[in-house]
Amino acid sequence: MNYHQYYPVDVVNGPGTRVTLFVSGCEHQCRGCYNQSTWDPRSGHPFDGAMADRIIADLNDSRIPRRGLSLSGGDPLFPGNLDAIKALLLRVKEECPGKDVWLWTGYRLDELSPAQQALLPLIDVLVDGKFVQEQADPSLRFRGSANQVIHLLKESQQAQK
Ligand code: SF4
């Protein structure tokens, strides 16, 4: 997996103060996509162990408490990204207790492949669906168009709604 951007402190992509990774690779080709440069999975920089270590360290940095990790792109559920995303999320669950995971994908929850579904237990909130320009609405929180849905996959997130 490759990535384009990493924000160690982010207050825009999800609730609270977070760390955010924008990965490479997306096959949805939404009209009006704000991030076309990420479509090619070979674009950006290799996501390696050092980058994963940095994310874990930032999530656990008590000087700037982070609520969790946001994964966007590109598409973190692009088939070629699944192994690397799974490995990262397993580390977050193991090494960063109490941190939540928000993930943005162009696939709808009801059309995920079995391999994509296998990641759902590691995700707290899934924001799904392609960006649809005709339904774009800048007033929406954490999503670009009205067709996209914020799925609270864990009871803990329902309580914080
Ligand atoms: S899913 Fe996101 S990154 Fe992919 S084409 Fe659509 S808007 Fe762009």
TrEMBL record:
Gene3D superfamilies: Aldolase class I. It catalyses: glycyl-[protein] + reduced [flavodoxin] + S-adenosyl-L-methionine = glycin-2-yl radical-[protein] + semiquinone [flavodoxin] + 5'-deoxyadenosine + L-methionine + H(+). Its cofactor is [4Fe-4S] cluster. It comes from the Bacteria. Belongs to the organic radical-activating enzymes family. NCBIfam families: NrdG, PRK11121.1. The keyword 4Fe-4S applies. This is Anaerobic ribonucleoside-triphosphate reductase-activating protein. It holds the Pfam family Fer4_12. The gene is nrdG. Activation of anaerobic ribonucleoside-triphosphate reductase under anaerobic conditions by generation of an organic free radical, using S-adenosylmethionine and reduced flavodoxin as cosubstrates to produce 5'-deoxy-adenosine. The keyword Transport does not apply. Its EC number is 1.97.1.-. CDD domains: Radical_SAM. PROSITE patterns: RADICAL_ACTIVATING. Keywords: 4Fe-4S, Iron, Iron-sulfur, Metal-binding, Oxidoreductase, S-adenosyl-L-methionine. InterPro entries: Aldolase_TIM, NrdG, Organic_radical-activating, Radical_activat_CS, rSAM, rSAM_sf.
